[in-house]
Design goal:
Layout (H helix, E strand, L loop, with lengths): L1 H27 L6 H5 L7 H10 L6 H12 L13 H36 L3 H16 L2 H15 L13 H30 L2 H8 L4 H38 L5 H11 L2 H29 L13
Amino acid sequence: SRSEYLRWILVRVAVTMLAASFLLYALTHVIPGDPIRALFGFRPPPPGVLAELRGRYGLDDPFYVQYFKFLGNASRLDFGYSTRGETVREIVVSGLPVSLRLAGLAMLIQIVFGIGLGVVAALTRSRIVRRLIGAATIVLIAIPVMVIAFGLQTYIGFNLRLLPISGVAQGWTGYILPAVALAAGATAYTIRLTTSEVRSTMSSPFVTTAKGKGLSHRRIVGVHVLRPSLLPIITLIAATAAQIIGGLIIVEVIFEIPGIGSAVVDAIRAKDHNVIVAILALAVLFAIAATAVVDLLHVVIDPRLEEPTGAAPG
């Protein structure tokens, strides 16, 4: 039933999040170096100060004790303190709105241009247009996000001076170049999948029947072609959400954007475990939530799908 399906999604999200939090917490402890010693740079800290600070942050506790303390605090949205003195919540709250706006704009670009150009490539009779779109997607998939970001920053921002090259002090214009860089690869994948799905659906018997009934081309494409084609497309968009979140780190550093991507890079440099785990766990939660939303959208688009893909609720 629909309620069982929803419960299955919630259980899957909880289990996946718990496993991801453990893995992230374990990986941060593999990073070489001591976060307390890192505070003092090249000067060795006094032994008494080192012992006092390690005790204050619980770094002398066994790993499993530290992890369960982290889980208990995280359940109250308390991620402890950064070794630099701020609370982790303050760091996340200050950078999260910036990163959400950037990621949201990137996903909007992916959806609008990915689906729009994919439909154009599938339905156009112009061979030149199809080849241009196809060649552009191959190039965007092949080029790393770092190269795209530097290219946009250099040619559009610095040489042509059309848009800001760093920061977001100038408002929404500061988000455009980093969002385009962030969305480029995901948009290319969306264009290619949309093109393939629309072409396949256009040759289906029910589309031929709709044409025989004299329905308008716009109605055939909008209702009879796009709706069944959306299932794999929205699945891809959810999968690339994780790619976009991962790209935030690179793009925010290049464009000097004060989001959580830049914060996690600073935390890695300082070996600040609490900040690293909190931000990466938040990123994992976003990706898991995107997948859960897609599962729900599958049922909305096609009510016959009442069970999650590849598994059945127990």
